[in-house]
Amino acid sequence: MNAITLIELGLTGLLVALVPLYFVWRAKGFDNKYRKLVGVTMFFTFDLIMFGAFTRLTDSGLGCPDWPGCYNRSNPLLAHEHINAAQQAMPTGPVTWSKAWIEMTHRYFAMAVGVLIIALMVLAWRRWVRSGKTEPQYRPWFATALLGFVCLQGAFGAWTVTMKLQPVIVTIHLLLGLTLLAMLAWLYARHNPHLAVSPGRGMATPAAIGLALLTLQIALGGWVSTNYAALACTDFPLCDGKLVPDMDFAHGFTLWRHLGMTAAGDFLPFQALTAIHWVHRSFAFVVILYVVWLAHKALRDPGLRKTGRWLLIIVALQLCTGLATIYLNWPLAIAVVHNGGAALLVLLLVMLNYKARYAPAGIAAASPQAAVSPVT
């Protein structure tokens, strides 16, 4: 990868980021600017996760088989000779014009998120230094950690391509993306005093358990998607006409292996895909029941009622889209919405955890500055 291509890629990411940055720049006052920057970065990260799901579900992850460019070029137009040759050799293969553009668009958005996070870090450091380190809500450590985290996410994005969509790498890439979204949601909550409410009695631990269960379920869902096991069971509530179908857990849940292969290099048996699908489906009911119970518990607290209501709505959406992927033979739009619903649940449970644990009682009636929780 030559320096000119890297500069072109960087400028493309900056160009994409200019739209939200202009929206932020128009806001009045530093506090408002910073809060809006956190919000738009969170929004772009959510969109990036949705588009990442679209990239994965359209089998476009290797649309450009190198990284960070496309055949060492900054966009598919400049790599037209290589793409044409690959498409002619394999018209439905991993490299086509549409898949190359989908993959590179995903990378452009990822670069834009990186630019926005750099802007967050620079603003936090600038305010922290200029204030004489007297404004704890602008301690720059969290924003700096975000930059380190997005770099780690970028590394796994590169390994996703260079390791040819190895399932464990792709699944970790998904989980890191959702963790980045969760971190931004936490930062957004800290800089929005109106989110400060009286902590729900006894809600902190149940909310943390709910987030942990959801994380495990998303990991299982990512494992289904990256192993292309979504249609291993095409009936419901049975699977292949059985309550407990024939399954191969050993091969299905061997983490370090190539896509579609066992650790020994043989083709992955269908029973392994069935095991992957069945575990995700079965554990979904555990998570649904727990989150519904958690939402009803939140509804009894005035400060958590709105979050509880949205939890019930999104859980219902997830159940419907999950069933629809089975009955309608995995339509692309519904599969993408299902991924988006998981990201929304992450956002809601992060907000619930913040409100239940760190929003001090009576603080909403105090000054806005005091409403921001201590920054660690």
UniProtKB/TrEMBL annotation:
Indicate how the chain sits in the lipid bilayer: Multi-pass membrane protein
Q: Which GO terms describe its biological process?
A: heme A biosynthetic process
Which sequence ranges are marked TM in the entry?
A: 6-25, 37-57, 108-129, 141-162, 168-189, 201-220, 278-296, 308-328, 334-354
Where it sits in the cell: the answer is:
Membrane
| A Pfam family the protein falls into | COX15-CtaA
Asked whether the keyword tRNA processing is assigned, the reply is no
Gene Ontology terms for molecular function: metal ion binding; oxidoreductase activity
- Superkingdom of origin: Bacteria
Q: Name one GO cellular component term.
A: membrane
Record's keyword terms, sorted? Cell membrane, Disulfide bond, Heme biosynthesis, Iron, Membrane, Metal-binding, Oxidoreductase, Transmembrane, Transmembrane helix
Recorded metabolic or biological pathway in which this protein acts:
Porphyrin-containing compound metabolism
Record PANTHER family: HEME A SYNTHASE
Protein's name according to its UniProt entry: Heme A synthase
